[in-house]
Amino acid sequence: MVSNLRSHFREFVMINSTRHRFALFLLISLAFLQSCGNSPAPQPPAPSPIPTITNNATESVEDADGTSLAKLPTPAKESAPVKPMAIPTPQKVPPESVVSLPAVDANMTGLKYDSVISQRTAPIPGSHSWQYRQNPRGQIVGFEFSNRGGNRILPERYDIGKNKHFTRDFQFRFDERARQDIHLNITDWAPSRDKQFRLSALMTSVLLFFPRIYIPAIAAVGASSVVTLPTGEEVQFDAKTLEIVSGVFAEAPVALSAPRFPAVEYLGKGVTVRVNARGTDPRIATVATITTGSPEPNCAKGQSCNQCQVPARELWEQKGAVRFKFPTDDEFDRYLRARCGFGLPQMAGEFVNHASIKEPASPAGF
Question: Which of 186, 333, 334 is nearest to 271 (CA)?
């Protein structure tokens, strides 16, 4: 009995002791939490002040405790932003028309409408410029210009605003820079009797010059525009009015009262083929006049020994592309001797300095 009581007492003591220790642990924990809540949170160290640079050329930089760190150069004052240099747009330089040899004899069978006409800058202030025709390879295949009046040849002035189209036009063509179809179109445009300008009233002449040694060329020389013909002979035009002033051409005024074909005459030593028409292509269904400037010594002036007339169909194709039928001068010379009794004169080297001749060695050559 007594042992049982002792046992129960020890259990009671142990339980009470455990309860006291647990209560003591709770008190200590609570005190610790209260002390943590009342303590301020640790703060990061204050940053050192940023070193400053004065306006002197060089200045000491100091740290927070006043210790000199280094001598640093003062940064240069900011200048205004530099604008990028404007690059000028390159101007398109037109090609020069120079005396050169034909690239080939024969033209292609069909026609190609792939050339572009551009305006050439006037050679001198106040003068008229000419236009040049270029193919896709950049080669010149023609040039043209017009006398637009206000001069002896054409007193009336061109004025499109008043429907006045008075002109004498010169158009040199050499498609593909071939020998076969080198020719000159000359057109006079004056009004009809009712004072109206119509395409059907155009008075047109087509001229070919032989021998066809060179591609025609035009150049500004002082106050003149000088044209070199296929024969190598030259014609000088006034740069301002584009009247003929010298060379192997002579001209009379444009007919204003009665229709007349362009009064432009060839005075050179070569052979010319000429056809005329009003409002249509002179090369179709007309009669061609062939004249030599170098007749036989025993040919009296006015006789037919220096001139003959043939149907245009003997010289040009009448359908499709209107091409001259004789690509080479040798072929045409044989035709002339059989048909007209005279041939082509030997003119090579007589008129043009061959040192200035440019061979058509590359497609870009003019």
Answer: 333
Please state, in angstroms and rounded to a whole number, the distance separating the CA atoms of residues 282 and 185.
Answer: 10
What region, left, alpha or beta, does residue 292 occupy, with left being phi > 0 and alpha being psi -120 to 50 degrees?
A: beta
* Virtual torsion, Cα 153, 155, 160, 165, nearest 10 deg: -50
Segment 289-317 mean pLDDT:
87
Say what the pTM is. 0.69
Question: Length of the chain, please?
Answer: 366
What the block records as the tokens of 47 is: 């940053």
- Using CB atoms within 10 Å of the CB of residue 308, give its burial: 0 to 12 exposed, 13 to 18 middle, 19+ buried: middle
Model confidence band, residue 54 (pLDDT cutoffs 50, 70, 90): very low
pLDDT, tens digit (0-9, with 9 covering 90-100), for 84-126: 666 655 555 556 678 999 999 999 877 777 888 888 776 666 6
d(CA 109, CA 52): 87
Q: Which amino acid is at 102?
A: P
- 190 φ, ψ to 5°? -130, 155
